[in-house]
Structure formats: structure tokens, C-alpha cells
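Here we describe the complex-level prediction in full. Unlike the single-chain runs in Section 2.1, the two entities below were treated as one system.
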Amino acid sequence: MALAAFGQLNADDIPSWGSRSVDCFEKLEQIGEGTYGQVYMAREIKTGEIVALKKIRMDNEKEGFPITAIREIKILKKLDHENIIKLKEIVTSQGPEVDEQGKPDSKYNGNIYMVFEYMDHDLTGLADRPGLRFTIPQIKCYMKQLLTGLHYCHVNQVLHRDIKGSNLLIDNEGTLKLADFGLARSFSGDHNANLTNRVITLWYRPPELLLGATKYGPAVDMWSVGCIFAELLHGKPILPGKNEPEQLNKIFELCGSPNEINWPGVSKIPWYNKFKPARQMNKHLREVFRNFDRHALDLLEKMLILDPSQRISAKDALDAEYFWTDPLPCDPKSLPKYESSHEFQTKKKRQQQRQNEEIAKRQKLQHPQQHARLPPIQQTGQAHPQHWTGLNHPVSNYQPPASAGPSHHHYGKPRGPPGGPNRYPPSGNPSGGYYPDRGGQGGGYTSGSYPPQGRAPPYSGSSVPASGPRGAVSGYGVAPANYSQGGQYAGSGAGRGPNPMGGNRSQQYGWQQ
Amino acid sequence: MASNFWTSSHYKQLLDQEEVDVVHPLDREKGINLEDFKLIKMHMANYIGKLAQNVKVRQRVVATAVTYMRRVYTKKSMTEYDPRVVAPTCLYLASKAEESTVQARVLVYYTRKLYSDEKYRYEIKDILEMEMKILEALNYYLVVFHPYRSLSQLLQDAGMNDTQICWGLVNDTYKMDLILIHPPHLIALACIYVASVLKDKENTAWFEELRVDMNVVSLQS
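The structure predicted for the assembly as a whole is:
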């Protein structure tokens, strides 16, 4: 990937002062949705280049240009690394208001878009693909890139503060890039500034932030990396708390509870006494993940250390045995190419899929004999039965007996109903709660759902992600045995079009067998 | 900012004196000559400084704000970009970029307090509107390197204790366009040199050792 030197971000083909209009781009498809705006995939009309446009929402801004956007722009213009998303330029669109001369008055009423290089996937979207299980060299490859990018951030004194799967973008060259610096900020080496502790998506938030620390450093990002690492190996998020107290509890259950011995100074952290568990809890990390290989477990243990000062740094993690023992991390370019998948899109597709299935069901009712072959509901809805209540769609009825979880068939396109999925545009949220949001609301171009400054009361709950368990959706943890790489693309006519899920995976859809 | 000045947009955007000293055609039509242009910018720098004292932000924010203002006027006319609203807006934007946010309404309040003149009356929405125009004029390059960081290092190296005068001199450099023209460490050096001359301190040997381009110094006075 050719990298322009820093500062040449947009020097060549763009007038050096003033920004171009968004009209230079043709929006193709929405690929993300965040608190501060939508993200679109778009094509630059002049060059045909595909880019991602992240809209900076300006309405409801009492304080002008959002400081989160200022931080993100400042930081992105400062960072230049192959594992960090590249901000290509900023474009504007004219607002509706015109001044008395009839000329467009100012950009104030318009929209502002950040233009990023387009990335095909985010890690969550990719991991959620049906039947996709990452290989160990692949996981090592992604982890190595993640740590390399993060190390670069930390060397440049930038904390990312929202490391999670949907913010790690992956292109079809296998390159992983850190994205969404909307919560990032610069830090000084001495950790003396007071920073907000209301950052990082709950599941990936380190114990020191949950305990209310306002002085922290790069270790917060390393905790998130540890969570991602375990998630990649384990197949689903390891610490899916529903709120802060539960999150802390889950952490303590896994990593033990903190005390002055394993974490000197912990009792001085603001909310320590409030959340201190009644009894000392022991560490269970090694038992819970006993199926991981030794080096992976060693590394994970160093990442998920409660005391931030003892937690491994990105630099040291890159030196870990894990990355230097067989199987070695693979070359990114050797990784398989997948069709575009962003978390936002896969979620949306699941919604569409359910609607299709509903129609399929109605048709099916005329062929009741097929039902006899299906497993009962209880068998599949095991993990989170509450999410099945109140749903009148029939997914589980069509569960192929071979599959352990209720997930894969959502991607398969039923052959039954006429027409493709795009004949059934997504409605609001036909079955709210079944595929609850993972908090970050979509792909890595978007901003997290946290207020940039912790003005909210500590437990307002408003910024707690709607953290439904994703266990039921995990694709790779329960991959069907018959998965083959070729099968992914076999017979696929769908490319990057608005509906790339077009019927190429019917073979995974078990109900017709 | 921790990142490297030599790879920054700031370094790449350094200009020559001649490029900075261009009065925009629109302003020239109105009869503004180069001297007026410089005076207005100096006045605005003072204005930003005064406002900053009232809203209590660090000197660094003032320096960034003044730099933004000076950069804007290398490209835009004062006719289109009224200095009386550009000044507070630059401070507003700089306060965000330097992580010490000041609310727009607070700025408006102090503007009114400082200047009762009708012509200085601006509303919050004027500031917010101008903010977008300034961001665009700056091409969203918001990171500015200042001489302060090098200054403290250099002062230590030169073994000078009386630093107050140097800091003052550095602050005064923002009354000119030096920050657009020279890399910050040279400005810092020049200030140290001027300070040495003023204090009759013999620093020639130290300067020679550094082999810096002493021509910069002449620009200082």
C-alpha cells in the first residue's frame, strides 16, 4: 500500500486551501452509524476511488465544531502509519441557508465529512461471518498488526481509548488498521492530567477506569487488546457486562479481585471501596482458557493484569514468545479475501434476513412436513432464552441440526421466497433485542456511543452500551464442519453492491436438506 | 505535541516573509497598506491576549490562536473575514485544539465587557459560523509547534537562570508573523540571543557552538 508522506495528505490534487465539496463523491451505501454521524461508502467521481465518508453531525452542537472531531482530525493528521486509518481529506457540503446576495452563506449550516480510505471489513463484522473461523497464524497476524499500530500511537503519545473489534478495520490485503479516533487524545508522559474515565466500550474497559481512575495511560488500551485477543481465540466476547458493576464483577471473576498486594495503590482509586467485592476472589484465567496454547495464555495473562502499571506494553507484547513461535503470524497478503463485511451491515443484513425468513415461514406453512425434521426450540436458544421471548419469527425452527448455535442460517438466503433480500427493505428493528447492539453502534469509522467528556453521572446508564450478549451470534465459535474457503465465493455474483449477501451461501442454510 | 516538527504540517507550511506580507487584493482596494495590515494583526494579537487573560487560558492557547489568525490572513481578506470576529473565534478554536475548552458564550461575554463599541458586538452564532470558515481556511491543520518547549531546553543548556525575560520575548514574537516563517526552535534561540544582549551576558561561545543561522536574530529587532 502506497503511503503518502505525512503532510501530503491532500496536497496533490486538491486546492491547498479550502475544502472540496462532498459532491466530488457519490455515496454508495451506508456502512456505519455512530453518535456523531453516519458513515458511507462512496466513490470519488473523478478517480473512481472507493472511500469512506464519515459525516460529522453538526446539528445540536451548541459548541460549534465538536471537540471530538477536532481531536480526531488533529490526531489523524499527526499519525501516519500503515496500521492506522488514513484521513485523506475533509470535504463539506453547503447548508441550505443563503445570505442576502443569494450566495451560500457559510459552511456552518452544511455538513462536514472526513474522507478515509475504504476498508472492506471490521474485525467484528469479519468474525461474525458464518462459518468463518480464524486460523492461528491469522489471529497472530491481526494481533501483531493491532499491537504495531497501537505501539505507534503510544509512542506518539496518543491514547486510542476505544479499541474494540468494530474499530479495527481490515482490508482485503489482510492489513489491519486502527480507526475511530473520536475518543482518542494526547497524553503527557507523566499521567498527571485528569482524563475522563467514561471512555472505552464497556466490554473492553479496564478495571482502573471502571473504578473511577482519572489518571491513566496507555495501559487502558492494552486491556482492550487483551479482551480482543481472548475474543479472537475464544470465539465470543469474554467480558460481556451489562453495566459497570456487572462488568467489574465479570473482570474480578476472571482475573481475581484487586487488593493492595496485587495492585499497590488500588485502595486510593475513587470508587474502590464502593465496588470492592465482599470476599477476595481468585484468578481463573488459566482455567477458563485452558484450551489456549501456552504462549497465547502467557501473553493474555500479561494483558489482563488488573494493575495497569504491571500490564504489558504494546512494545513488550510484540516481543512476546507468542509471535515468535510456530505457527508464526502469517503474511497479511496471504490471508483469504472476503466480501465486504462491516458490523453495521451484517446487523442490518440479519434484520433483512429475518424478514425474509418470516416470509419463508409463511410459505413453509404450506409444507408442514419439513418441520418434523427440525430440532426443538430449547435446543438452540440455550444461552439467552430471554431474547427469544416475544419474537414471532421462526429462526430456530429452521435450525439445521448440524449447527450448534442459532447463528449461521441468518446469513443463508432462503431459496423459498421469491426475490432477493433487497426486495425487503429493512424496517426499524423488527425484533428489537434479539441482536442487540454491541455498544459501539456499527463500524469502525463511527464514533463510540460515549459522551466525549464524562459529564454524565457515573451510573446514568445512558452511555452504557446496549450490551446484549452476542454469544448467540458468534459465527466462528461454532463453525460448521463443512466450511470451506472456496464455498464462500462459489457461485457468488455479488460483489460490493448494495447487497453482497446475495444468494451465495444457501448451501449453509440447512433447512432445505 | 509529541510528534516530530520536521514531519509536521507546520514545518511544511512555513512561508517566506514575502509570502506573508501580501495584502489581499480586496483589502488593498479598501486602502489598507502593508503597514496597516501588520498593525491590525498586531492589534488582534493583543486582543486575543486580553481575552485570554479574562477567560484564563494558558499562554500556549494564546500562541496557537494568534498563529491560526495569522495563517488565516495569509489566504483570506480582512474584508471577508472580519478581524473582530476572527480574533475571538481563533481563541475559541485554539482552546479546543489545546484541550482547554472555553465556551463560546463566555468569550462573547468578555468581548462585550472589553469593548463596548458596537462594532465588536458579535453573537455566539457568529463565532460558530466563523469557526467553520477558519477551520476550512486552515485546511484543518490544527497542530502548531511553539518555541516554548525548545526554549526551556535551550535555556537549561545555555545555563541561563533568568528565564523570565526570554519567556516574555517569546510571547512578544507573536506580535509578528515569525511563527509562520521560522521553525520554533530558531525563534527560541533568537529570543535567548536578544535576552543575552539585553543582559550583557556573554553567550557568543555557546551560540557558535550551536552553529545556528544568526541571520534570524536580525529579524527579531
